[in-house]
Amino acid sequence: MYMGPSDCSPLFRVSNFHDKSQAPKSYRTVLHCDANSFFASCETALHPEYALVPMAVCGSVEDRHGIVLAKNELAKKYNIKTAETVWAAKKKCPNLLIVRPTYQLYSEMSRRMNDIFYQYTDLVEPFGVDESWLDVSGSVRLFGNGKRIADAIRERILNELGITVSVGVSFNKVFAKLGSDLKKPNATSVIPPERFASIVWPLPVTDLLFVGSSTAKTLERIGVHTIGDLACCDEAALSEVLGKNGLMLKEFALGHDYAEVTVKGYEPEPKSVSNGMTFRHNLENLQDISFAVTYLSMSVAERLRKHSLCCKNVAVTVRTPDMKSVNRSAMLSHPTCLYSEISKAALYLVRENTNPESEIYSVTVHAEKLTRENEFLYQQQLFTEPWEDKYKKLHSLESAVDAIRLRYGREAIGIASALNNRLI
Ligand SMILES: [Mg+2]
């Protein structure tokens, strides 16, 4: 389950999927491992009795996140779908057992799953909490071919963690990902280079990574229904409707995906950093708004500092209970990566652009126009602007908080107003 942005454009920007200069000299062996109904499987591993009844992990109704997050095999028989409301799911299956999510358990299971992957290769690239790509090209002499490694990994995860995974084995990431969807649960599917067309081309084009429903609709208009249609499609027609992305998708359909499985710890540099939240209650007064904005700005600033970036602009998106949203941005007097400065700008934007009488449903804080400018601050001691001294002091304070959190965990230090706060 990929829990990143629904719009795939940032991925396009950072990927080198279509760069032919990256083409390897020989075929790689790439695995994509995808845990089946991950949240539900984790819960069942802990409570085996859950396997005997239709069960779904759902966000709670009180928290306004009352949707199905994952369901077990028995619940699937009732046609219960991920992301539908608890209410709709209960209508289909009145006896459905509803389980609240325990995210700590899922991240622990995810870590243990990835630990197993690392025993077969150091080239592991997680894609969300329950999926990872593995490049095992360098390990086949030691552990056997891709299928043998995939089967060994499945068996170990089942024995050691009690959950099932589906694995796709292929010569690139896009086909490995597609392979892991072919057979579920607990299966290995191989898409070899010499036979990929007969396996992949008859499949609907939506099975291809990055082809979402709106791209599929566009493709349908020019007669592309299957991956094979895409592979044979006229390039001019494709680029007319989808631009460069259309041409890249055709390359994928032809098996020309040369993106590397990125090494441990790799994280692409962000183009912008945002954090938004629907709080437990609507924001009713200035105190609520101030807390919300500060809370969100802290994690935005932390991510900026992690990448040694500063933002020149701060923007906010505010949603009111009638689902109307307002988007406003402002340029800062100097680039910053400090939460104290980001939250000040964000709070100003919220206050200036909302009616103080009306409640707020959700807020998002965005750091935009990212730059490395302030990184050089410490090297330029000759001329100091008046704000720089204060900035440096605050920067050491906030970096100290980062260091404490890195060492002792996120909960080790935080803002006092977050304690027992009714909003989070
Ligand atoms: Mg999954």
SSE topology string: HEHEEHHEHEEHHEHEHHHHEHEEHEH
Sheet with most strands: 5 strands, mixed
Strand order of the largest sheet: 5-6-1-7-8
Helix percentage range: 25-40%
Count of helical stretches: 15
Q: Count of DSSP E strands?
A: 12
Report on this structure.
- This protein is of the alpha+beta class and 424 residues long.
- The protein has three domains: 26-35 and 106-253, Alpha-Beta Plaits, CATH 3.30.70.270; 38-104, MutS, DNA mismatch repair protein, domain I (3-Layer(aba) Sandwich), CATH 3.40.1170.60; 273-418, Dna Ligase, domain 1.
- The protein is 40% helix and 19% strand.
- It is built from 15 helices and twelve strands.
- The strands form three sheets. Strands 5-6-1-7-8 form a five-stranded mixed β-sheet. Strands 9-12-10-11 form a four-stranded antiparallel β-sheet, with helices on one face. It has a three-stranded mixed β-sheet with strand order 3-2-4.
- A hairpin with a 5-residue loop joins β10 (310-319) and β11 (325-336).
- α2 (38-46) crosses α5 (103-118), α5 runs antiparallel to α7 (146-161) and α13 crosses α14 (339-353).
- The longest helix has 23 residues, at 386-408.
- The two termini are 25 Å apart.
- Mean pLDDT is 87; it is low at 1-15.
- Magnesium ion (MG) binds next to β1.
Name a few traits of the molecule:
424 residues; alpha+beta; Alpha-Beta Plaits; MutS, DNA mismatch repair protein, domain I; Dna Ligase, domain 1; 3 domains; 5-stranded mixed sheet; 4-stranded antiparallel sheet; 15 helices; 12 strands; disordered N terminus; binds magnesium ion
